[in-house]
From TrEMBL:
Sequence ranges assigned to domain Yippee in this UniProt record: 12-109
Entry keyword Membrane: no
Full protein name: Protein yippee-like
Keywords linked to the UniProt accession: Metal-binding, Zinc
Single Gene Ontology MF annotation: metal ion binding
Pfam families named in the record: Yippee-Mis18
UniProt similarity note: Belongs to the yippee family.
Signal peptide bounds: none
Highest taxon of source: Eukaryota
Length: 113
């Protein structure tokens, strides 16, 4: 395994609660109205410092989706999933977007100078 290069975000950020690796910006949240097996989840336009697992078909409340679990590169904890494809037309907006599970995150507010 090579050297790990992490992206450091500036602003109001969400980080891994286990190792504090930056994962996403508050400004990149599309919706906070999602739920997962552990409670609340947020839909993000983009995230950083994650690796992806294997594609799988997963039945969710809104129908069948092809997803990959996403893992923090800092500690390997599962932090959510990425929507690869949605099988129902009205769910297509999720494709290429990321879910971060709230229980796996810490929130750091932007520092005012």
């Amino acid at each position: 395994m090579g050297r790990l290069f992490l992206i450091t975000l500036e602003g109001s950020i969400y980080s891994c609660k286990h190792c504090k690796t930056h994962l996403g910006l508050s400004d990149d949240i599309i919706s906070k109205a999602f739920h997962c097996r552990h409670g609340k989840a947020y839909l993000f336009e983009k995230v950083v410092n994650v690796t992806v697992g294997e594609k799988e078909e997963r039945m969710m409340i809104t129908g069948m989706h092809t997803v990959v679990d996403i893992f923090c590169v800092g500690c390997g904890s599962i932090v959510g999933w990425k929507y690869e494809s949605a099988h129902e037309k009205q769910q297509k907006y999720k494709e290429g977007k990321f879910i971060l599970e709230r229980y796996a995150l810490d929130f750091v507010r932007e520092k005012c100078i």
